[in-house]
Amino acid sequence: MFNILVSDPISDFGLQQLMDAEDVEVTKATGLSEEELVAIIPAYDALLVRSQTKVTRALLEAGVRLQVVGRAGVGVDNIDLDAATSWGIIVVNAPDGNTVTTCEHAFAMMMALARHIPQAYAKTAGGQWDRKAFLGVELRNKTLGVLGLGRIGIEVAKRAAAFGMKVIGYDPFLLEERANKLGIRLTDVDTIVRTADFITVHTPLTEETRHMLAKPQFDVMKRGMRIINCARGGIIDETALLEALDKGILAGAAFDVFEQEPPPPEHPFLNHPQIIVTPHLGASTLEAQENVAIDVSEQVIHILRQEPFKNAVNMPLVPSELFNRLQPWFALCQQLGKSLAQMTDGAVREVRIESAGELAELDTSILFPYVLKGVLSHHLGAGQVNVVNAMHLAKLRDIQLSVSKSMFSGTASSEVTLVLKTTVEERWVTGSYVPGVGGRLVRIGPYPVELLPEGYVLIISQQDKPGIIGRVGTLLGGSGINIATMQVGRNEVGGSAVMILKIDKKTPEHTMEALLAMPEIKRVREISFAE
Ligand SMILES: NC(=O)c1ccc[n+]([C@@H]2O[C@H](COP(=O)([O-])OP(=O)(O)OC[C@H]3O[C@@H](n4cnc5c(N)ncnc54)[C@H](O)[C@@H]3O)[C@@H](O)[C@H]2O)c1
Ligand SMILES: O=C(O)CC[C@@H](O)C(=O)O
Fold first, then answer.
1. Whose CA is nearest to atom 25 of ligand 1?
2. Distance between Cα 51 and ligand 2 center (Å)
């Protein structure tokens, strides 16, 4: 049974699939302090949050069973990602579910700013009929500057075009061709602040975007500008913005997010006549809350059940087409890593993925977390390594990683060869994946095999001499070990030979010793594919 703690208000409709799952127990406990959360978290396998819960290092450290933190929304700035990664805890978010909702909020803010709607409402509701104080401006023919053209920024730009606005924008990752198709003219921040009538920000808060609009930008800003922030507090310097309003540079500002949330009651934005504020409502619609809760619940249940998942924030971002093509190889790569770790002596120094066939055309570095999970679990213990911290653990140990096409990359069938170099030797295994059949080992070193990665395999290196196979069979039979399959290979008659035996159970210590005591046998390794 998986225990899931939901520590922020998350849509019940979205959580339904978790509540219906037979292997899941959901506990809702919102509004707890960090101390209270730390006290209860050891009992949970997953934690689901929105933006209120601060998922701190102390909380993650106390979560001894925690496998995943799910964020019902986009921003993960309330989660200590470094701590989660080092504890091997996967962080997933729901990046798409609230895009349109947040875009619509930004647009509502822009329209409210243009027509002073909140101020006019307050005065009218207060009994004053004042039609002169609220002369607005049209959006039509105005220039909108969009800083950050990701999911939300692009939706805002599309709607602005429908309102007859000219859209200019800045995003280091948006290609000119795509921008042109969307009718957005890409330019730089300086041009935007000097020429736009409205600016809306839609970037994450990072070291680079913190105070992206600050005194130097306000000093050169077009007079009468209106500014909207429905992204993250801190992207716009609040003090510099107030100064710009006082100097008459700005005509108004609309903020959904603040450097400190909630802002203290004396915060100057809260009763400023030219500033519209909302309490971080960007994602607050019925639809968005259901969407993000459904998305994040799906991810969390996949992770707990060890099924493939997307949207991990503390793992490399994999485009979904690439993910779908590589996904069948994940389990096999882990098993290849596991088998090689058991075959080699010495400390791991280098891991290389060589690919052949169609696989060689893909970015196979995505397979490293799975390969490394297999390799490092053998050395560090299964519970210590997962696909989130495997790369981090490899880096800490200075293990070199590389990918290449194998010599046989022109072959029709896809194969992956994993090469492990340690301080004392280098060995390799090759696996192949057949749709409908699954993954299997097709070569151990130079020797062809046909092995499903399950149960136990004995690899015996010996001198090629008559009678050895029979003596090994007798010895194993005497220990009650059934041989399911046997494959043999040799480099030359009378030279080095290898016996690869699929056996039904683990070989007892005394049988291993008896095998090694045979003078022709040079090395015996047992590979266990069991967890
Ligand atoms: N108010 C709310 O309730 C609410 C709801 C959802 C999202 N958000 C916030 O909105 C923001 C945007 O969300 P999204 O889903 O569009 O994210 P996204 O990742 O799709 O887009 C962010 C874009 O910002 C760009 N960017 C990064 N650094 C930049 C820089 N220095 N200059 C210009 N562009 C830069 C990125 O290239 C990316 O295209 C995030 O901060 C998110 O947390 C707020
Ligand atoms: O949970 C919320 O309502 C805030 C969501 C929003 O800020 C986000 O980043 O997705």
1. 148
2. 6
Catalytic residues: 232, 261, 280
Predicted confidence at residue 409, as pLDDT, reads 53
* pTM above threshold 0.80: no
Contact indicator for 18, 4 with CB cutoff of 8 Å: yes
Tens-digit pLDDT profile for residues 190-232: 999 999 999 999 999 988 899 999 999 999 999 999 999 999 9
**340-367 as b/e, with b when 16 or more CB fall inside 10 Å?**
bbbbbeeebeebbbbbbbebbebebebb
Measured between alpha carbons, how far is 157 from 150 in angstroms, rounded to an integer? 10
Topology of domain 316-452, per CATH?
60s Ribosomal Protein L30; Chain: A; (3.30.1330)
| Residue 313 CB neighbours (<10 A) | 20
SS (H, E, C) 394-445: HHHCCCEEEEEECCCCCCCCCEEEEEEEECCCEEEEEEEEECCCEEEEEEEC
Helices (H), 247-316: 286-304
Judged by its nearest atom, the ligand closest to the C-alpha of residue 235 is 1
Q: Which of 8, 152, 188 to mutate to test the pocket of ligand 1 (most atoms within 8 A of CB)?
A: 152
Q: How far apart are CA 88 and CA 67, in angstroms?
A: 7
CA of 283 to the centre of ligand 2 (A): 5
Q: Which CATH number fits domain 454-531: 3.30.70.270, 3.30.428.10, 3.30.70.260, 3.30.1330.10?
A: 3.30.70.260
Beta-carbon contacts of residue 129 (< 8 Å; ≥ 6 apart): none
